[in-house]
# Entry
Amino acid sequence: MQKKLLLTPGPTPVPEDVLAAMARPIIHHRHEEFKGILAKVKEDLKYLFQTSSDVLLFAATGTGAMEGAVTNLLSPGDKAVVVRAGKFGERWAEICQAYGVKVVPVDVPWGKAVDPADVKQALDREPDARAVLIQASETSTAVRHPIREVAELVAQREQTVMVVDAITGIGVFDIPTDAWKLDVVVTGSQKALMLPPGLAFASVSPKAWGFVKQSKLPRFYFDFAKEKKNLDKNQSAYTSAVSLVLGLQVALERIKKEGLQNVFARTEKMARATREGAKALGLGLLAPESPSPACTAILLPAGIDGEKVPSLIRERYNVAVAGGQDRLKGKIVRISHMGYVQPYDILSGLAALELTLRDLGHPVQIGTSVQAALAVLSE
Ligand SMILES: *Cc1c(COP(=O)(O)O)cnc(C)c1O
# Structure
């Protein structure tokens, strides 16, 4: 069997010490030992989110925490400004629609970041909008949104909260939750946190807790107040995902040891190396103006069957990357550089991409992208 390289924007590779922690025998989630672990994890999550508020944990994928944000903050018939710039922006709108929340869309062409002036216009037009829902990093298009500027608009409005899907933002680039006045920030375990899928997280600001008190949408499992009451006792409302929390403890220790700012710098450098590699091959980027450091979306040459790239690169070269979704199918390939990825993994990914493009009939000078990326990595 060949060694495989996972460079998809979720799930991402899991480090060996995290895997080992998760292989430990199960302990009971109501016993003292587990409470001690959760107490520690609780503190480390505050470091990761750069907040003094509690970060709630749920056994779910990231979408669970997104749904929880909507149902805990809003009431039927409320309006929410939704930035729709890709698949995940659309997901915010779909969750709202499922719960009878009126969507005030701010539609952005795929590959572009939102202009904060457009959000301001929507808020001015709908002053009773109760929330702004946005992505820090829109993984489907590899775009980074200016959440700091948008949050400044929202912070001036007492009746509106700022809700950020930072599922490919937290642990990827600097998102100081408290300093930027982000009210609810959501992430999931299988992206930059270097864990398997199955944990969702949400930080909740004091302003957001005020909204939770007034909110009237139905909720049961994703009940923020109930979860907070339990977390205050280093417990979860229902059975904790014990093994994932054991892994989380080690993953958070790794991040603390490296230092958040160093994690961001390493990720940014790998992102830049990937972009330079693509450009050296003569390939364009889907989001050249506001690229996310989480993953890079490379435009595929028009002359090849782009839909074949993800399967070919996996079958022939044991590298997993992601293609495009919906209208981007066959048009892009997405290479992740968040979490447990080391700089030289990027070189393997680019090398495999070069060979795959050549296999599909696109002329490639072998080594071109690798050389450009290595030049960045060796700075
Ligand atoms: C991965 C991801 C999600 C969540 O997807 P799940 O499959 O529910 O974990 C949501 N938003 C963004 C931006 C993502 O990258």
The CA atoms of residues 156 and 181 lie 10 Å apart. Residues 10, 61-63, 88, 135, 139, 165, 167-168, 188 surround pyridoxal-5'-phosphate (CB under 6 Å). The longest helix spans residues 260-280.
